[in-house]
Every structure is written in C-alpha cells, then in structure tokens.
Design brief:
The chain is mainly alpha-helical. The chain has one domain. The protein is about 70% helix and about 5% strand. The protein is built from nine helices and five strands. The strands form two sheets. The protein has a three-stranded antiparallel beta sheet with strand order 4-3-5. It has a two-stranded antiparallel sheet with strand order 1-2. Strand 3 and strand 4 form a beta hairpin. The longest helix is centred in the last third of the chain and has 40 residues. The radius of gyration is 22 Å and the shape is globular. The relative contact order is 0.13. The model has no long low-confidence stretch (mean pLDDT about 85). Its main location: membrane. Belongs to the ATPase A chain family. One of its GO terms (molecular function) is hydrolase activity. Keywords: ATP synthesis, Cell membrane, CF(0), Hydrogen ion transport, Hydrolase, Ion transport, Membrane, Transmembrane, Transmembrane helix, Transport.
Length: about 280
C-alpha cells in the first residue's frame, strides 16, 4: 500500500518508520542523522531535547509574564486560567503531602504543566512540522512529541527518584533509611537479604512505572494518529481525527495529572517515618 509522505509516495511501513524515527546528533562526528542510520550509544535525540526545552521555556515565560501583570481586581482570561491551575495543584499537594515544603507545590506545578505541553504536541498535524523542517532546514526526520520518547520520560522519572532518595535520607536519616530497606517487611536480621531485595524492587519500581506509563500512553496515541494519516485518504482523516483528538485531550491531561499525583504520593511516602 502506498501513501503520501511529505510530498512523496512511499509504503505504509516506510511512512510509519519515518515518523517514528528521531533526529539524532551523532556525538562521534557531530552530525544530524536519522535514528535508523546510527547504531551507537553516543547519540542524542536532538528533536526531543529541543521541544522539551522549548516547551519548558514557554511555560516559564508565560507564567512569569502573567505573574508580573497579575491584578487584584477582575482578572483576565489568561490570569484566571493560570490561577485555576495553581489552585488545582495546591489542593492536590495539601491533600497528599502533609509536611511543610517550599519545593513540592512548585515541583508539582512544573511537572503538570510541562508534561501537559509536551503531550499536547501530539494534537498537531503529523506531517506539519516534519514537512516544514524538511522544506526549510532540510532535516531528514523530526518527532515533535517529547513525552513519546522513552529517554525524556525516564529522565523526568529519574529526577523524581533522586528527590525520593533525598527526602528519605533528609527526613529519616541515613541509618533509618537503611533500616527500612533491610528490616521491612520481616523484622529479623536473618531476613535482611530478602527484605533488601523486596524493598529495592519496590523503590526502583516507582521511577520505572512513572516513565513507562507516560511513554506507553503517548507513544500509542502518536502511533494511532500516524496510522490514521497513513491508512486513510485526507478527506476521511478529518472525520476520524477530530473525535480521536477530542478524546486524546482527556488522555494527555490525565497522563500529566497522574505523573504529578504519583510524584507527590511518592515524595509523601518518602517523608513518612516507620518504627523498625
């Protein structure tokens, strides 16, 4: 079966592979290449990094702009929207995280908005930005959904994992933290190896589940858009894309919310002290 790809005719398999390839920077010779042409560890998915940083910058600049021009009177629509988001995040933090912390609420807000912006890129036309990148800058491929890249989601989950370790050690102390790893759930020295294995699996499963859940959902959503574009004629794509895009708005928002809530829950669990 042949489909139209960026003004050319290609097979459906080639079309799908084209859109699932990353624009990578080969660190050996500092050249931009397609992911399928490089079999090396020393590469960077430059498209995912670029859009992640760009969307993070948009988040920071827009919130800073609104904060500087916020009024105590009747707010405009943008200020109202941002205030609703902040109140929503603060309520979840207060309900879950019982300790006083100046970090958790800003962290939760950053995670929610940043992931939402990365996820919402999935609603752009599949061929729009790759076509512009090829036409203007002659780039071979371009993926525009950073959260559909396992490297991005694992990097964010790793940051959360480092905070879990930090709060666990800071609140409980290094000795209590080690005791929890070695003396739970079986409080006897003979079970220390078993306890360590069980608690290590429980600890490591937190960042892994965060990363894989977000990646899996966004990768699947992106693939469905690609299949719709590759299998159907352009006039039928709109009929299918619109209801799927409306449903996908719920998915991208829910995934950002789940990542934020689980981060707060994991950090709250890290601050809980147990008698060992």
């Amino acid at each position: 079966m042949s489909v139209s790809k960026l003004g050319e005719t290609t097979t459906l398999k080639a079309y799908i592979c084209h859109h699932l390839n990353h624009l990578q920077l080969d660190l050996h010779n500092f050249k931009l290449v397609k992911a399928s042409t490089v079999a090396s560890f020393w590469v960077l998915n430059i498209d995912s990094m670029f859009f992640s940083l760009l969307l993070g910058l948009i988040f920071l600049v827009s919130f800073y702009y609104v904060a500087k021009r916020a009024t105590s009177g009747i707010p405009n629509k943008i200020q109202t929207t941002i205030e609703l988001i902040i109140d929503f995040v603060n309520k979840n933090v207060r309900d879950i995280f019982q300790m006083q912390s100046k970090l958790i609420a800003p962290l939760a807000l950053t995670i929610f908005v940043w992931i939402f912006l990365m996820n919402i890129m999935d609603l752009l036309s599949i061929d729009l930005l790759p076509y512009l990148a090829q036409y203007i800058w002659n780039l071979p491929v371009l993926r525009v959904v950073p959260s559909a890249d396992i490297n991005i989601t694992f990097a964010m989950a790793l940051g959360v994992f480092m905070l879990i370790l930090y709060y666990s050690i800071m609140i409980k102390g290094i000795k209590s933290f080690i005791k929890e790893l070695t003396m739970q759930p079986f409080n006897h020295p003979i079970f220390i190896p078993i306890n360590l294995i069980l608690e290590s699996v429980s600890l490591l499963s937190k960042p892994i589940s965060l990363a894989l859940r977000l990646f899996g959902n966004m990768y699947a959503g992106e693939l469905i858009f690609i299949l719709i574009a590759g299998l159907l004629p352009w006039w039928l794509q709109w009929i299918i894309n619109v209801p799927w895009a409306i449903f996908h708005i719920i998915i991208v928002t829910l995934q950002a919310f789940i990542f934020m809530v689980l981060t707060i829950v994991y950090l709250a669990m890290a601050t809980e002290t147990h008698k060992v």
